Amino acid sequence: xxxxxxxxxxxxxxxxxxxxxxxxxxxxxxxxxxxxxxxxxxxxxxxxxxxxxxxxxxxxxxxxxxxxxxxxxxxxxxxxxxxxxxxxxxxxxxxxxxxxxxxxxxxxxxxxxxxxxxxxxxxxxxxxxxxxxxxxxxxxxxxxxxxxxxxxxxxxxxxxxxxxxxxxxxxxxxxxxxxxxxxxxxxxxxxxxxxxxxxxxxxxxxxxxxxxxxxxxxxxxxxxxxxxxxxxxxxxxxxxxxxxxxxxxxxxxxxxxxxxxxxxxxxxxxxxxxxxxxxxxxxxxxxxxxxxxxxxxxxxxxxxxxxxxxxxxxxxxxxxxxxxxxxxxxxxxxxxxxxx
Length: 340
Hints:
This protein is α/β, with parallel strands linked by helices and 340 residues long. It has helices at 16-26, 44-53, 59-67, 75-81, 95-107, 110-121, 157-161, 181-188, 200-204, 211-219, 242-252, 272-282, 303-315, 320-327, and strands at residues 10-14, 33-37, 126-129, 136-142, 151-155, 166-173, 192-195, 223-227, 260-264, 287-291. The strands form 2 sheets. Strands 3-2-1-7-8-9-10 form a 7-stranded parallel β-sheet, with helices on both faces. It has a 3-stranded antiparallel β-sheet with strand order 5-4-6. Helix 11 (242-252) links the parallel strand 8 (223-227) and strand 9 (260-264). The radius of gyration is 19 Å and the shape is globular.
């Protein structure tokens, strides 16, 4: 997409609170939105329903539905997000998770269940799982043994997200999971694809580890924007700089390219640190755009600021380098490229 079109088709990939922030921003720009959501959660209500019913973990899917609801502050959106208290069997479950569980059993299809809740909430767009099967995340983690050179495998999204060690690499189990057919089609027909922000190893990187999604992301003609986190997260990315986030994404998917990396201007000081981020972005064949997108005093993205930054970014002429990579005419490697 060379310029801004009226009501462009936007696909947002991620999970949890990061995807919620992206969707809350993107819905200000278009009505043609598809959320593609991770399905590896194994904690809390989602983990319990997944273990008991064998269903896709519904929590992140539910949050995406709520973000796109016609009235996010209305009764239905609030009810879907409502979590039961007390100490009984329902304690900790959210109404939306149980609703998705029931509809999945009645309709026999998790995507049909999501569409039905989408109609109930009158959502803008559509919410889809990244894979039709629940996935597990396994990480190679160092720093858990006396010898820091010794790594240990940790399995499960919650365990990876909260590890006191240093995550080196993650993989999906099964290692070659199917991609959701509707998600692949949405990416193939998108005008814009937005990846991130979110938990880097458990909500962002998994999208490029599903072969079908990675292929679609490689070949789509959509403009691809990577939204960087505002800060490192305790646990999985503790101590990570902005450039380290880009390095590990590139290491997990060397053939993955994006057009722009959107970085909060206050999170990376001007000077040498920004030069390091720009060099790291070259591995993704991307240029870096710095913009004020933060909620003041927090590590969260401000929906209005993020929407304005994405709007301004997409209105600009599309960089040629990532576009050539998408077309298959640019060699994949670590060429040094000047974006000045």
